[in-house]
Amino acid sequence: MLVSGKEIMAVAKERKFAVPAFNAGSGQLLNAVMEACEEAKSPVMIAIHPDELSFLTDSFVDQVKFLANHTKIPVCIHLDHGASYEQVIHAIQLGFTSVMIDASHLPYEENVEISKKVVAAAHPVGVSVEAELGTIGDTGNTVEGGVSEVIYTDPKVAQDFIDKTGVDSLAVAIGTAHGIYPKDVDPKLRLDILEEIEKATDIPLVLHGGSSNPDEEIAKAVTMGVNKINISSDIKIVFANKLREILNGGNSEIREPNVLFPKCMEETKKVALEKIKLFNSIDQAKHYFN
Fold first, then answer.
1. Has 81 been labeled as part of a binding site?
2. Could you tell me the residue range of the domain that residue 30 belongs to?
3. pLDDT of amino acid 275
4. Which terminus of the chain has fewer CB atoms gathered within 10 Å of its CB, N or C?
């Protein structure tokens, strides 16, 4: 069942869980996370970054729509970190049901203006809008990008941003970074800031870049008002590691995709199931049906 971001997160906010948003950078990753969500009876957001879409081409969206229309779980197709108004409009035309405009690196008023402009274009056609306030870190080698120094979301201006823009969900910066942290870095979420933001706002909150943060912190964030969590690096790393293992196994004759990829997909599926459980999203799909 294909739904909007607003629809999928409204239930999550009411029932206090987080919808997993998996970055499906290939058909194999897409199928693996869809299998995991169907098995766990979890709603899912299939997140596609503009760079991923450029690589996969627009036809990939039809593949996602086909799966969404032939499953019994709620599925939202989400543009991850749209960098411009033009990218967002293109995604809406392709059939995305949720879009993110990420103008967090711009001055506050410019972030407000472009986010407001996106909302004006998206809402009349039933597409939900996510924006970002504050900045997400970047550990390197990810399509999502980020900044070297995190600027935390200011709880005092969060509701003002929501009121001025009309966005449906807000990505907050509380100490996460895209990618996997180096071994000598001990990431820590500012749950105190999250608590203040949740008290000051009235829409679902989104967490980006939580791949390396301790499970107990992520689980706590879910209980404190985070209703969508993006997962990219975790599912891609296990896929790539298994593929390296297969290719380095000594059999130079292995070349068929249906031989190379199934074990990689199984590793991705395992991680996806772990995240679904961590986000308290198991068996939540039933709450979307009357």
1. yes
2. 3-232+268-285
3. 97
4. C
pLDDT in tens, 154-192: 999 999 999 999 999 999 999 877 555 545 555 678 999
Annotated catalytic residue, options 51, 80, 163, 202: 80
Tokens describing residue 141 = 């080698």
Report the number of distinct structural domains present in the chain. Answer: 1
Confidence label for 209 from pLDDT (cuts 50, 70 and 90): confident
Does the annotation flag 208 for ligand binding? yes
**Exposure of 118 in the CB half-sphere (CA atoms within 13 A):** 34
> Could you tell me if residue 84 is inside a domain?
yes
Whether residue 105 is annotated as binding a ligand: the answer is no
Could you give the C-alpha distances from 169 to 119, 131, 172, 226, in angstroms and in order?
Answer: 11, 7, 10, 10
**Confidence (pTM):** 0.91
Q: Determine the average pLDDT of the residues in 18-25.
A: 95
CATH of the domain at 47: 3.20.20.70
